[in-house]
Amino acid sequence: MTTEVGSETEVKKDSEQLGPDKAKDKPEEASETPGDQKSRETSSGEAQDSSVPAPTNQSSPSSQKKEKSSPESKGISRFLPPWLKKQKSYTLAEPKDEPKKKATGEEQVVEESESQALEGVAQPRKSLEEATENRQNAKAGDREKHSISSAEIQPSKEDGKETEVEEVAEKKEEKQEEKRETKEVQTAEIKIDNIPQKSPKKIKTVQCKVMLLDGTEYSCDLEKRARGQVLFDKVCEHLNLLEKDYFGLLFYENSEQKNWLDSSKEIKRQIRSLPWIFTFNVKFYPPDPSQLTEDITRYFLCLQLRQDIVSGRLPCSFVTHALLGSYTLQAELGDHDPEEHSSDYISEFQFAPNQTQEMEEKVAELHKTHRGLTPAQADSQFLENAKRLSMYGVDLHHAKDSEGVDIMLGVCANGLLIYKDRLRINRFAWPKILKISYKRSNFYIKVRPAELEQFESTIGFKLPNHRAAKRLWKVCVEHHTFFRLLSPEQPPKAKFLTLGSKFRYSGRTQAQTRQASNLIDRPAPYFERTSSKRVSRSLDGAPMGISDQSLVRDFSATGGQAAGDKIIDLEAAGRAKLKEGGREEDESPLKTPQLEFTQDGKNSFLQLTHIHPSSLPIHPVSSHLTYLSPVPEIDMLSDISEEDPFEEPLLTIPDISECSSMEQTSDHKKTGTASPINSLELRPLASRGSPAVEGKIRTNDYKSTELCVSFSFFRCLSFSFRSLLDEDGYITFPSLPDVCISFLPPGLQHYIPITSPSFIPSFLLVFVLLLSAFQSIPFSLTFSLPLALSLCYLEPKVTSFSSSSGNDLNDKAEEEEVEYEEEEAQQKISSLRVDGENIYVRHSNLMLEDLDKTQDDLLKHQASISELKRNFMESTPEPRPNEWEKRRITPLSLQTQGRHASRAEGPCTGVSDADKSSHETLDIVEEKKQAEFGIEETLVVDETNKGKMQVATDAGETCKVEHVSKKDSSSLPSDSSSSSSSSESEDEEVGEYHPHHRAIEEVIREEQEDEEDMKRKEHEENTQHVEAIPEGSKPVPVEHTQVTVEDLVHENTITVATEEKNLSEQIKQDVGEEKEEEQLKLNGDVSHVDIDVAPQLICCSEPPVVKTEMVTISDATQRTEISTKEIPIVQTETKTITYESSQLDGNAVGDTGVLVSAQTITSESISTTTTTHITKMVKGGVSETRIEKRIVITGDADIDHDEALAQAIKEAKEQHPDMSVTRVVVHKETELAEEDED
Amino acid sequence: MAGLGGGLAAFGRCTHAVVRALPESLCRQALRSVAGPEVDLARAEREHQLYVGVLRGKLGLQVLELPADESLPDCVFVEDVAVVCEETALLTRPGAPSRRKEVEAMKRVLESLNLNIVEMVDENATLDGGDVLFTGREFFVGLSKRTNQRGAEILADTFKDYAVSTVPVHDSLHLKSFCSMAGPNLIAIGSSEAAQKALKTMQQMSDHRYDKLTVPDDAAANCIYLNIPSKGHVLLHRAPEEYPESAKVFEKLKDHMLIPIANTELEKVDGSLTCCSVFINKASEL
Q: Cα separation of A896 and A816, whole Å?
């Protein structure tokens, strides 16, 4: 017993260390992968094993038993969402003396720390080692427990569905493994006593074959649990390839379906059959191969393209075949030599799927013209021509459109292409795509509304099957990330009962790989260009590798052997590790109470995760992510049904509540406003769950009852559980067969989602929960069914908000989606170009009511108003958990890079997007190239800078203005994001940025004190804000549209006359004026605003603003007051539309509140300026947050502003579902002179 | 032997032009979308001669002039019967049955130029060259009354190197009735709603960013861009007398050698500048 305890504390200690020290050490060792660790792990384990000659005497029968059961218990945990598993460590608090319990807990801790290490792409190597040691210690310390690795090693079940021969081989392996596991445990035990030992190691390996691009074959032995990355790295090392991010390993499933090996996951979970045969291929075709750094990379790309061409995947014309062929000859044979190259030398090569004599002649003819080109030059020429081919780098997928017409979907660097036969019938560039998702065999893209459309549309395609849909989805996610983002997205947080894929591309993006390859500093590696003769001839148009049956056969014949154990000496490493482990063990205190242990474990765990962001610039892991991130370990369900399970499902249950409570504390608002299903899920759980620190106390027998029941349940369903896991290792619950529905009365069949895929998990969870709460099986059974059904019923309701089509109740749980917040991508990119956007935070301490006295002419504009109104009226806030989650998940580094901008934009993103995209599509003349694009952007920034300067001076002492200097912007953004996050309580980085925020707040308070109380009250009441944006006065030859959602004030040009003689926009702190405004405001009808202040205005604003129109609509009465006056037109047309909801009146009257905080964030992008003003106040005990967004769109006349406004409102509603839009003011200034076209 | 057209630099290069004389039957029998004043044959011939003269004399192209065929009133519009890109020529199957025989003469002359010739034999396919816009990077094919999906597919099969995107064309005869290339990366486009809509479609379909040159008149958006080694960028556009506003727009193109050409008569029968010629770029050795 003492040893046990000791080891536990040991683990704890280790995991604590794990974080701080090690993570800091080598932040860049990102690619040091899981596989490595694993191999080390196993090897160390087995080293012990062999060092001690089979001490079976110590093994107790119980430990044996447990070993057997362990895979199963693992298995059941796989039913649960990964994050549930992850939470397990918290449950360790259970003050149970049962060794079994502890063992499990410990195991989980280890597992957790391991998964930490594994999951963080950028986990430093050292921490990996630590994890290994942890594990060793854990093993060593617990004599009654099986080793974790033993549980994980079991591969057989997964692979089991393959050919019989393989199965047999597998079984043998299994047995061997089991034996060794036993030994491991024992040796571990011994190890405690005899501390450091030298031992050779055994590693269980599988032979892999990789077909290389030059037609050769590379084989290596791989540790059985190795991740894809290990193999990939080995291959790249073999090839001497550094720019490896463009490449990947393919394996074939059912001969035709090619899949990319996910390097972050274990190979054996992806490829279910032996032998392991892969092909090394180009995964991302660089749009401009000349930007590759090394010739060797280009060479491999050439080889790939030659394959593509010969196989017909890359169609080309006769002439191009000949030309490319001639470059191939030049690269491989050198200059044409009439003597050496006799007439038929060429026919040994293959250049095209259907090679003709004529073509060969042409090739020979062209070959002569390439005299003098070096192989590298010839390759470059080859690529220069190949890259222009229309199908270069297009990954085609068969599909059907909504009408059942056969089409092809092509994924490429720029987006998604739709082909019908050979014709391109549509194209969706990445910036146009808002979301990609798939559900069953359907694949959906949600696209931005076109200019004249108001709403996003979702386009669905039918793929041959679910796997095809998922494959396409993954390819899309990867391509989008690789080509469009600066750094990979973090995988989304797992949601309860959303069993969707958390897949994200985890490699480097093109931007990153380019950056990395700039650092390549080695002499150009020598490599031999193998002649394509042999290779291409053998190809004959077929895809490489797998199609060669003899090879496969050959391999599987040797596979059994190959897969057998191999003993590898890794003495040195093993010894070192053992020593370390032993020493630490000695030092550790032995009697730390268990409860404390768990707490500590948790703390250290969190600590660990906090380290990541700062230490890992490239792959930051935000703290919250880490514990919510998926645990990759998910095993076959069939394992479970066989044997007697252990703790897992039960242990995880309290975690749910814990997790939810944590979630709630971290962002109460979010969970509060989250989708109904979320709250529904959480409530029962939370009610019974106790805080983690207290620990969950449960009796052992209790658990076993629950498990038995659930297992028998599984057993009866097991027939359909074969394919529960998809290739990611995620559970995909099958629907109950449709037969089940026939049990229901016909009338109910439509409403009761018994065939929903989430039904089973819901049912189980509910059942287990109830059972544990009431300890009555019949009771639980009775109630869990309706509850599960209601969960299933609600689920689609929720998800349907995010997917506008196919709200089939049955489809829900399989839906998986990526939300591409394209503006983010754009922000990131643009921030790269301009070195950060100009963002400033300022606070205007006087907030004025919006009165727009600048204009007094009103014009009728029924059409746009009615549209506006319509939009405004449909104010059902949509729950959009995804949005929030996305935000939370954003890695910190991204935020500092300009991601903040999109956040600050808030509701305005819609508008800015719309504008941006219209920019892209419309003003093509202006944006010829990326480079120019950049220039344009800076120009705009300059323009707006003017305004900001003014604002700065206006805001005076109190305001902080940062901008212009590009370097400032990088630091500033954090300010803005933090302030916005804190006030909206939407972000988690608050902690990190809090200092900033507080500073700002203080400033604000000071300012307020400076003001008269009265004024302040009024001002708080209405939370009016004044923004100064220079469009009114600036003779900019473009059109500005301001869309302000929520209370908004703008164009205080009136006050200019009284206060400042500078023309134009400034923030006014004119008491009198404000009062006046307030009065108007209180009346609740802004139509009174038509005060004629025009003369003043004209005096102060630079270009005589002439034709102006102002329309005010009052929501409460549904009546529109419009009056019109005309003034001679000079240069611009200004239009202002105010829309105000009646709600405001109620708020405005009577109540006085205390202003808690106020911030203004302004972000700017190419053509939009967004000012977000957030006020938080407390009114009669209720805190109220107001967000005012002002968007200035600068664009040409083609932009549909009404649509932009509608979009903005919509976005605002979506982003702040808990808030209501109370006021909308549109101010439109149009230059009347027609724009020039060129 | 530049592969794939050698990129943008080679766009508009040409050595030969195929034209065809006007038959007298054109005046009365030529297809026309809207009834209107009769074509003044003499004037039409004068304009056409001027057109050919510019190609031959001013630009130094080898102009191959096919004789008129009275049984083919529309035969002057050679563009519709052949699409030539690099060394491959696709002989089309014109949408108007009365014009199908025009292909024969074209086939002979293209064969004499040693081009790889692909004939559109599919009975279901129709394609007018006027619906084919080649930008140097890709093809856009207008799906109009004269051109169908199948025709576009065959075009795509013929020119495999290039993306072929389809653009619906509703209000006008051809895709090129309101647009054309005015430079290597420059699309001239009319201002009509239909034209702008088509442009947007094209922009959406393309991976490339084209510049656009918007001219007030749709008909004036049809111009001929050539890249003549000794002259540089050459643009044949409609005369200021016909479309003064549009001509002003063209005049802003400083890098181009501008050659205004009147086309008042053939316009009455839906003829535009590009309709009357097929350009071929033959490598010098041939």
A: 28
B237 catalytic per annotation: no
Q: Is residue B286 part of a domain?
A: no
Does position A517 have pLDDT exceeding 50, yes or no?
yes
Span A618-631, average pLDDT: 31
**Mean pLDDT to the nearest integer, A898-925:** 36
Digit-coded pLDDT (tens) for A110-145: 444 444 444 443 344 444 444 444 444 444 444 444
Q: For position A512, what pLDDT does the model report? A: 84
Name the least confident of A314-328, A512-526, A773-787, A1022-1036: A1022-1036
HEC assignment per residue over A196-241 = CCCCCEEEEEEEEEEECCCCCEEEEEEECCCEHHHHHHHHHHHHCC
Using CB atoms, pick whichever of B87, B116, B157 lies closest to residue A422. Answer: B157
Candidates B115, B147, B166, B209: best to mutate against A (most CBs of A within 10 A) is B209
Q: Give the CATH number for residue B104.
A: 3.75.10.10
Question: Do residue B163 and residue A924 have CB atoms under 8 angstroms apart?
Answer: no
Task: Provide the pLDDT for residue A793.
Answer: 57
User: Catalytic annotation on B275?
Assistant: yes
With CA atoms as reference, report the closest residue to A477 among A509, A517, A516. A509
Q: Which residues of A touch B200 (CB under 8 A)?
A: 451, 921
Q: For A374-400, how does the pLDDT look when each residue is reduced to its tens digit (9 = 90+)?
A: 999 999 999 999 999 999 999 999 999
Count of domains forming chain B? 1
Task: Give the closest-approach CA distance of A438 to chain B in angstroms.
Answer: 23
Chain B: nearest CA to A315, how far in angstroms?
6
Winning range, highest mean pLDDT, from A672-681, A864-873, B26-35? B26-35
SS3 A460: strand
Q: Using a CB–CB cutoff of 8 Å, tell me whether A422 touches chain B.
A: yes
Q: Does B264 touch chain A (CB under 8 A)?
A: no
User: Residue B247: which domain range?
Assistant: 10-280
Q: Does B115 touch chain A (CB under 8 A)?
A: no
**What is the C-alpha to C-alpha distance for residues A129 and A126, in angstroms, rounded to an integer?**
5
Strands A276-282 and A201-211 turn out to be parallel
Residue A1084 identity: G
From A359's Cα to the closest Cα of chain B, the distance in A is 12
Record: contact B116-A318, CB cut-off 8 A: yes
Q: Is residue B139 part of a domain?
A: yes
Least Cα distance to A670 among A896, A493, A900, A437 occurs for A493
Closest chain A CA to residue B165: A424
Scanning A926-965 for CB atoms below 8 A from B yields: 927-929
Q: What is the rounded average pLDDT for all residues in chain A?
A: 54
Give residues with Cβ within 8 angstroms of A719, minimum separation 6: none
- Predicted TM-score of the model (pTM): 0.50
pLDDT at A19 over 80: no
B5 occurs within a structural domain: no
pLDDT confidence of A460, banded at 50, 70, 90?
A: very high
Query: Which tens digits make up the pLDDT trace of A809-846?
Result: 333 333 444 444 444 444 444 333 333 333 332 333 22
- A387 CB near a chain B CB, below 8 Å? no
Among A31, A39, A191, smallest CA distance to A573 is for A39
Q: Does A457 touch chain B (CB under 8 A)?
A: no
- Are the Cβ atoms of B88 and A317 closer than 8 angstroms? yes
The answer to the question of residue B273 being in a domain is yes
